[in-house]
Every structure is written in structure tokens, then in C-alpha cells.
Structure prediction request, 597 residues.
Amino acid sequence: MSPSSYQNLIVSPAYRQASRRVLRQLLEALLFEHALADVDIRNGELQLNGRDHQGAGIAYRCTVRSTFSFARIRVLSPLMRTGADGSVAEAGDPALFLTEIAALLNADPLRLQQFAAELLATQIKDAQTLHARSGGSVLRGAPYDRLEARLTDSHPYHPSYKSRLGFTLTDNAAYSPEIAEAVRPLLIAVLRTRARAAFGNGIAAAGESKYLLHEADYRQFCAELERRGASPDDYLPLPVHPWQWDEIIAPGYHQALAGGELHLLGQLQEQYLPQQSIRTLGSMGAPQRPSLKLAMNLVNTSTSRVLAPHTVQNAAPISDWLQDLVRATDWPQPMKQPVILREIAGVSYTQQAPAAAQYGALSCIWRESIHQHLTPPEQAAPMTALLHIDGDGRPYIEPWIALHGPAHWLQTLIERAWLPVLHLLWTHGAALESHAQNMLLLHVDGLPERVALKDFHDGVRFSPALLSGPPPTLTAPPAEHARVNPNSFIQTDDANELRDFTFDALFFVNLAELAWLFERCYDFPQTRFWDIVADVLRRHQQAHPQQAARYALFDCFAPQVDIELLASRRFQPEIRLRTRAAPNPLAQAGRSRESAA
Prediction:
């Protein structure tokens, strides 16, 4: 990015918009997670007292409101800072904010400093993507693939929603889904004896390369290996993100490339467009072909985006197992069978003497395209689009709500998209991490029809003792990976952990944000919103009492549920699960009507 472009960015409205959002999500997360030792809220006005770098007293103030959804406190106005000299100005520096209120946080100083760096990176990269799309483009009516790339919202709760640590601003412009026009991965061939790979049902052994590559890329794969005196049958394809090649593979894997375990074959002929998760790329010329999920040593929403080899090996077996579960399940009305976007293949390379920093740095997972599953007149939209405010200042879903009405549309959404995920939990004990980025809505004229679910290699949890059938055969993580990633696990014997894993993503991260949008944009009370959600679930349970024991085991109407603390875990020591009990809006739903009656 040129100096003049950078200067234009940091004085743009987009920069102020990003600054306000980072501070808003940070403060809302700290409030929900009870991370602040002293909070003064009176008559809807919040005040936090802190100290500047000279030890003088300062204060931060804003307008807030407590809401029905999990008792979330929402910030309604820009955060204002009163200095020691009495001057008042809008806060715009999240790192300064954390420094000045540090005494209110039970924080490890080094981790707090790292968290501040994530927030600053989020602030500038969100501003950059907003500035690039500042023409007021309207996504309403756009085809699925454009929607998947151009949504700018990212995680609605996590304060580090767009940190992308490792990207320069030039990288962000070249490779972010909001800005990039096309990405062409590099193609590496990995010796089969040095690869860890797994392939799903329907992919013939010894024919994997031809199945996984576009025709022109397969010809290149074979011809280039043969030109070098190698047999294509001895190798597997392994696409690599160009950023990953420059930053990690070229400087760190030259021994394997020089020795013939790996061969760099050039760029893929096929062009791809980054999707919301950045490292997942969809084919531009052949959208029905599988997408590529590529390993990147990038940190986003506080998580490294490498692909651990054991999860790559588990991707296809978990997908096939889930597909079998779905097909063997009875889906009574009003549900419809969900689409499982299978991860059909995974390939990793592991060095003979792997460094911890390189575990999972050279991997790829191939995932089915939604275009293979659409039945006309169905259309697909990322579930994240439901929360999007379009370039004209109105919700993306505005025409749908106008056509179908908010109550009917919401009820149908829960019946067709939320209920199937819970049905898998109640019936089979399979918990899916169904936050909005892992769900696609299939609709007809905006009315929900079916749901498509994805991202299973590390987004599933189960207990073998609670499953309705045999578990999938999986590759265990190495001990070192489990030690440094205590939250990365698939099996648990705790039914509440399974319930909360589903509930947290499906209701807290996902549906509560929609309830907030309905209240702001459609004057639709959150109590009524959750009444509709609870009614759908209760009607289903009453219609199928034979599963009463499972409803009780995975109780979605428990008075309290455990929610993961996504902000606090960034400045406190990492443990297996860091959660807090929050009031469950489903348990409270209906009380207002009962009181009125």
C-alpha cells in the first residue's frame, strides 16, 4: 500500500467505522464475560474508570442497554474518553483502552499486549476492506459465490474478528475475500510415502489426482512429473496458497523440494475466489467443482489457520460418517434433510523432523460445492448474510421479511435450519459447531427451505457412549498438539459439553445476533423472537415424545448454559474450556405471555 493510499485510509469514514466496531465488540465481550472488576451502569449510562500512562485518572463512557438474549449488554453509542484534564473525545484506540483499564482486568500482561496487537490489526484491516467497498455496493440479489466472497461482516462477537496476523495490508488487498479479484494457488506434488491422506467414498484408489484436479491441471501434474523422470502415480496433488508459499514453504521446505519428496509444478490453471474464511477458495470457472481449504500460518479470530495433519486425515471419514447418519435419520415435518457438504479428500505433508511451528503448514482439504446440491428453484446464501446490513443501509434480508413477514419467516428458518442441527444432537449425540459461517441457507424466494452444513474436520464433537451407533474411526492428535491446543478435541464424555458446543454456536453466536437485528430494524421484541424459537422446539419435542430422555440429556431449555469466553481467553492462560454460565433465553421464553394471561 502506497503512503498516499495509507493516509487516505486512516482519515476515511471507513477507519472511524472500523474503530467504533472494534471498541464496541471489545466492550460488549468484556461485559458479557464479566471480565471487568468495576463497572458503573446507571440509567443506561456506563462508566469505566482507568489510569493514563502518567497515573492520572481518566474515564470511558457510553450508552448501553441490557437485552433479553443471554442478558447481553449492547453498546448503543460511540465510546467517549474523558482525559485527566477534563477534555472529552471519542475513543479510537483499542490498545490504549486496554492499557488504561488494565487494572480492571485479571490479565496476564504479555497476553494482554498480544491481544491489543490483534485488535489494532483488526481495526486497520477492517477499515481497509470497508474503504475498498465504500462505493455502497448492494449485495442483495447477488449470486452465492459473490456473496460468499464480498460479505464484510466477519465474526459478530469476537473482538479480533479480522486480525489476519501475518498479512500486510498489501497481502490483505491481494488475498482477502472482500477485495481480491482472483487467487491462483501453486501446485505441489507430494510423494505418496511422505503424505498423510484420506479420501471419501466415491474416490477410487490410485485415481485421486485425476478426481481432485481440473482437467488442465491434471495434465500439467502428469506432464511435469514425467518430464522430471518421476511417475505421477507415486505422487499426490497438494495446492498451496501463494502467501503460504512465500512466507512458509519456500523458505522452510527447500530440503524436501531439493530431495524430490515435493515438486513445485507451477500455478494451477484454475482461478479461485477467496471465501469468508480466507483460506477456503471457490473455483471461479467451474463453481460445481470442490473448493480448496488451504493451510495458512495466519492468525484470524485468535486462531491459527494451519491444517493439522490428523484433522486432514479425519476430514473425509467424519464427513462420510455424518452423511450416513443423515441418510439413516428420519426427518419428520416441518424439517427437511440437511445437506452435508462433505470434505471429500485431504492431503498433508509432514517433514521427517517436523518443527512444532510447521505442523499443519502444508495441507489441503477438498470440500463439495453447494452447487451440486441445489434443486431449482432453490438458491443458496451464506447464513452470515442474514445479519448483513447492505450498502443502502438496509438489511440484506429486507425483501424476504417484506414478502413473508418476520414471524412466519423466522419460524420457517428455525424449522428448516436450526431444528435439523438439534435433531442430530438429540437423535445421535452428534454435536456440530454450527455458527453462521458453517451454515448455508437454501431458500425459495427468500423463504428458508433447507440448510447446508460444513466444516467438519474439527467442528464436530461426540461421546462414543452417547452415540446411537458406532463412532467414526479417527486419527488421534499427537501429544504435543493436544498439549498446546487444549480446545481442539472431538470426543468428550460430558453431555453438557456436547449440548453447549452446539448451543453456543447455534444460538449465542448465531441466532442472538439475528434477534438483535430484528429488534433494531423491525421493532420485533426479543421476547417475541425467542418465544417463536422455543415454540418450534417444544412442538417438535411434544410431537416425538419417544425421545424424551434425549431431550432431557441435551437440555436446550436449561435455565443456564455455558458460553465460551472468546475475549477473556486471549488475555488469560489457555485452558481446555473457558466458559461462563449465562441465562438461557429459551428457558425464559413464554414467561411474558404467561404473565399477561
